[in-house]
Amino acid sequence: MVITVELRRAAPVLAAVVLAAATSAACSGAGGGGGAADGNAINVLMVNNPQMLDIQKLTEENFTKQTGIKVNYTVLPENDVRDKISQEFSSQAGQYDIASISNYEVPFYAKNGWLAPLDDFVAKDTAFDQNDVLPSMRQSLTAEDGKLYAEPFYGESSFLMYRKDVLDAKSLTVPDNPTWDQVADLAAKADGAQPGMKGICLRGQPGWGQVFAPLTTVVNTFGGTWFGKDWTPQVNAPEFKQATKFYVDLVRAHGEAGAPQAGFAECLNNMEQGKVAMWYDATSAAGLLNAADSPVAGKLGFAQAPVSKTKSAGWLYTWAWGVQQASKKHDAAWKFISWASGRDYEKLVGGKLGWSKVPDGKRASTYENQDYLKATPSARQTQQAITAADPRNPGTQPRPTIGIQFVDIPEFTDLGTQVSQQVSSAIAGSTTVDAALDGGQQLAEKVAAKYRAK
Amino acid sequence: MKRTWQPWGALAWLAGILFALPIGWMVLTSLHSEPDAATNPPSLTAPLTLQGYREFFGASTGQSSWPPLVNSASASIGSTVLVLLLAVPAAYALSIRPVRKWTDVMFFFLSTKMMPVVAGLLPVYLFAQKVGLLDNISYLVVLYTSMNLPIAVWLMRSFLAEVPTEILEAAALDGAGLITTLRRVVAPVAAPGIAATALICFIFSWNELLFARVLTGVVAGTAPVYLTSFVTSQGLFLAKVCAAAVVVSLPVLAAGFAAQDKLVQGLSLGAVK
Amino acid sequence: MTVHSPTAQHRSVPLRANAPRLAGQWARRAPLLPALVFLIAVTQLPFVATLVISVLRWNALDPTNTGFAGLRNYLAVVTDANLRSSMLNTAVLTVAVVLASLVLGLLLALLLDRRFLGRGVVRTMLIAPFLVVPVAAALLWKHVLYNPEYGLLNGVLTEVWRWFGSDHPPQPDWISGMPKLAVEAALVWQWTPFMMLILLAGLQSRPIEAVEAARIDGANAWQVFRYLTLPHLRRYLELGGLLGSIYIVQNFDAVFTITSGGLGTANLPYTIYQTFYQAHDYGQASAAGVVVVVVSIVIATFALRLVSSLLRNEAS
């Protein structure tokens, strides 16, 4: 029996020892695991866009030194960060004090009580000057209860960017307010203007925020909508189909190579490398195309988002800072937001990194700053596009909820993504637009049934 | 075989080069500047630079990339040790002095591997949130252990089964205790197998992405999660991502190359019985 | 579990034959218990929780509207065309990758089993893909190899066409044109080395005398392979197939990275992940998880028959 007794005793003891050893090893490896408990530190979860990487660079020197608040950043690509933020906020895990959210999330996050209202902070912080924030931005970050829940870091609409030099050489001119028919015609004529150059870059990558961002604005201006006022889904209605066919045909005929996988990054690269003559996308892309190290800086022209039946068609989007309700550091979080979304931060970036890198599109004062205006040829068109955007009434018919390039309901991420995968396949040529949208209609019907029942 | 023209050898070399080519290209790309990394046709002779590696180690953001690497090492080593400590006794009870119906037990172990991990992810997350284990490496250690334990028991059982019964009986007759038997008789036969198992567990833990994505945040983020953060939706990133991929894969590559003989030897034992 | 039935042992001679039988059984079980308890706690308890959540109406994005849903989640799951197609995708992906990497692995193992100059170097090169972190490999294939603008594949085409004086090389869009094949190729590249390692181990444990004897009896290379090598390798092929299937059925990294589940490549892990983390429909995602587990168990029963053939010799 000696052996067996030995073993019986040994096993649990051994297990306990191992667990303890593994745990302590792990904790010491992680630097004590105490990041969240540290009194003077806040945790920020954000998307890894260049503007965010810039603030990461500037924080230590220009924020932590002044306030004593350390900022721990977690940066992730857009798709990943959305999953993570919704998971974090829906469970109110409290790991992060601030996250970069958009005007898509704010209304329903606020309704669910996941965000801390910012009105009291704004009222006390006169230097922040809330009235300088553009009205459409303020409106889109205010929830149904009339409270403000996020502050914009940068804002954008969408417009048409084009290679002025290339089109000039072919004696083509882009009107300031083009129609989609004109743009399709220009794309056909500019196709092949230089070896390997296609007419236009349009996103085709699956994702509600990828292909459906520009595509939904096309649908809007063609007279279509995801849902009618009473939540009747209209995904396979004639207008929606016509718009999608137009988009798919255009990108298949004169669009970029690899269109079904092309998102913002791929199109940006195509534009910089001279692979396309035009690009319909976010106004914030202009800053990147005009940056000092961009090969196409100074060769670009800008026009308003192409339209068909509406007067304007640009979207409205902002990456904004929201404070998690479960966070215990609302005061420190506001200090960070006040700095990051403040007027002085824009000047700091302008002075240190260059005026083309300013996180713009959110404050009226930005568009009065001469340094900024000199460095930003797209400033006027951007301001016009953001001002013209009307998130409550973006199409030709009344809508059940807010949103231009999205429908502001939580189900839209899933719905939009699933339909976008079909549309992306249609761009690849492996399915038809009709089939894609008929499938989309069924999915939309499921979502709509839920809202009609309410 | 004589030293003549070896057609099979040439074919093997060709296959080897083909398989290693993407990795070679990854290393070369990591040493190029971003614009040189994104040319068509590829620029083979572009000047080399360490900029990608500098970016990985935080040249432009000031963020250190050591914590994720250390986190990955802690999680992988911690769970590998725990797996071995649990699996060796279990394998012993399944082979050398097997419990009755040990095949059923083996089936149970293996069947846990066939359930989709993702189906249990939500409870695992909610539990961690309730008890405050989010963003904690110990939790990853536990999960990685459960992930690797079935395979480890499976492989280890085969290795221990290699130990000839006669020797064990002889040792018992000689009055050797359990520890002595394990050390003198079992260990020499099973050592390569244990090493191979440990290596495989280490590799799978180091590579794990799904749990780490969902359960870690500021403090405990692992290297694969960190790696994905270099794919920006705005701007060029090929050189940076390749540099990151090289650094993150390096520990596994090094361990794997160093132990490839053990791996072959170990797996051969694992399959025979 | 049948571990608890108190009966006699059947392999080695009991070390103390006269010890009480019951105590002897428990002594045998003791070393097994920590692993067993650990695994049950960490893998089975969450599944019980999943089972409970699957009958709840619970969408995290709509926290005020929760309650008991009965079987409605299951109804939604079985009528969901996406889930059905992702089941099919999972099966196709697993079978294709496992078979292709087994065949390729076998060919490479046969090559490596010969002696030639620099065999060690070639083996190291062939193992390397297995040692690249999967998400790094997926990123590598997506951005560095497949990218239609600056990927290596199209870059090589441009270069080759240039040698022949053509400025218009074909520039296929690999991922969009053949999305499933693109994911499969990346996975086959990673898993072939693993299969090769197992099969190489098998080849090297082949009794050399039998081969020699067969040769002397006038068997040609094909006959030796067909009647000696292949039967000997059967167990190794089964082991490789089993381990490969276990990991590829669960593959998430490659699908998530290369196609984001688009273009009809979504497999089960990706689809369930999407329901969890994009739709946040916890109830429906859990129901899908349960359905998948049930289907897995059915399939696993067949797989385990294969396993039992691996174990049969020993248990008898």
TrEMBL record, chain A:
Per its UniProt entry, which superkingdom is the organism in?
Bacteria
The protein's matches in SUPFAM superfamilies, at most eight in alphabetical order, are given as: Periplasmic binding protein-like II
**What keywords are annotated for this sequence in UniProt?**
Signal
InterPro entries cross-referenced by the UniProt entry:
Bact_solute-bd_prot1, SBP
Position of the signal peptide = 1-25
Q: What is this protein called?
A: Sugar ABC transporter substrate-binding protein
From the broadest rank down, the organism's phylogenetic lineage runs: Bacteria, Bacillati, Actinomycetota, Actinomycetes, Pseudonocardiales
Automatic annotation (TrEMBL), chain B:
Record's bilayer topology term: Multi-pass membrane protein
What is its subcellular localisation? Cell membrane
Keywords assigned by UniProt, alphabetized: Cell membrane, Membrane, Transmembrane, Transmembrane helix, Transport
Residues in ABC transmembrane type-1 domain copies: 69-259
**UniProt cross-references to Pfam families, sorted A to Z:** BPD_transp_1
Under the cellular component aspect of Gene Ontology, which terms does the record hold? plasma membrane
Q: Which residue ranges traverse the bilayer?
A: 73-94, 106-125, 137-156, 185-205, 211-230, 237-259
Q: Which GO terms describe its biological process?
A: transmembrane transport
Domain of life, source organism = Bacteria
**What is this protein's name?**
Carbohydrate ABC transporter permease
What family classification does the UniProt entry report for this protein?
Answer: Belongs to the binding-protein-dependent transport system permease family.
TrEMBL record, chain C:
Gene Ontology BP, a term: transmembrane transport
- Key word Disulfide bond present in the record? no
Q: Which Gene3D superfamilies match?
A: MetI-like
Q: Can you tell which superkingdom this protein's organism belongs to? A: Bacteria
The way it spans or sits in the membrane comes to: Multi-pass membrane protein
Residues folding into a coiled coil are none
Where is this chain's protein located in or outside the cell? Cell membrane
Keywords assigned by UniProt, alphabetized: Cell membrane, Membrane, Transmembrane, Transmembrane helix, Transport
What are the record's GO terms for cellular component? plasma membrane
List all membrane-crossing ranges: 32-56, 91-112, 124-144, 181-203, 236-258, 285-307
The ABC transmembrane type-1 domain sits at 87-303
Task: Identify its protein family.
Answer: Belongs to the binding-protein-dependent transport system permease family.
- This protein's name: Sugar ABC transporter permease
Q: Which organism is it from?
A: Solihabitans fulvus
Record lineage: Bacteria, Bacillati, Actinomycetota, Actinomycetes, Pseudonocardiales
